[in-house]
Design brief:
Nucleoside Triphosphate Pyrophosphohydrolase, 2 domains, 4-stranded mixed β-sheet, about 180 residues
């Protein structure tokens, strides 16, 4: 059996999945597919905080057909998480001055995505959502919210905060500040 024997998959998006016939660790041959984004350069998710609150943005996500609360994030363009975080932060929020610290990484869905997402903390002096704006109209961000760190669990329990990358980044951030 070769990959050529498999089904034809057509994508209109410029990200093509890799489909290969592989021998899995248990010894069976099977087709596996995955998507590698941006040539394997990690994406970035940014935990914007003033110490008391974190920034959430509400963004339209076509894949689920809904507005989703999440941390700012985007595709990586360089191998430097700080540079990518600075670019994404300014594009999505207008914040151009923050102390950026890479604090970890997450694998959003290692069953299908081969690319990691770097988690970067962006420390700001004060979160004033009234000054935030997106400079990229394609982002479809309609509002921002500064949420008290102590209120995040309520958001999660109500189902208001359910984006997987944001939840994973939040846990990385909480673990990071716990050991500081």
């Amino acid at each position: 059996m070769t990959v050529d024997d498999g089904p034809e998959i057509v994508y209109s998006y410029p990200l093509s999945p890799r489909i290969e016939l592989l021998r899995e660790p248990l010894g069976n041959d099977r087709y596996l597919h995955w998507i590698e984004l941006q040539g394997g350069i990690p994406g970035v998710v940014i935990v914007v905080t003033d110490g008391a609150s974190v920034l959430l943005q509400r963004q339209w996500r076509r894949a689920v057909g809904a507005w989703v609360w999440q941390f700012p994030r985007g595709n990586g363009e360089t191998a430097d998480a700080r540079l990518d975080a600075a670019r994404e932060l300014e594009e999505e929020t207008g914040i151009s001055s923050a102390h950026l610290t890479p604090i970890g990484r997450v694998l959003p869905d290692p069953g299908i995505l081969s690319t990691a997402v770097s988690v970067v903390e962006a420390r700001v002096e004060f979160l004033d959502v009234s000054t935030l704006h997106t400079s990229d109209e394609n982002e479809l961000i309609d509002t921002f919210e500064a949420v008290g760190v102590s209120a995040l669990d309520s958001w999660i329990a109500r189902g208001d905060l359910c984006d997987g990358i944001t939840l994973a980044a939040l846990q990385v951030w909480r673990s990071h500040i716990a050991v500081e």
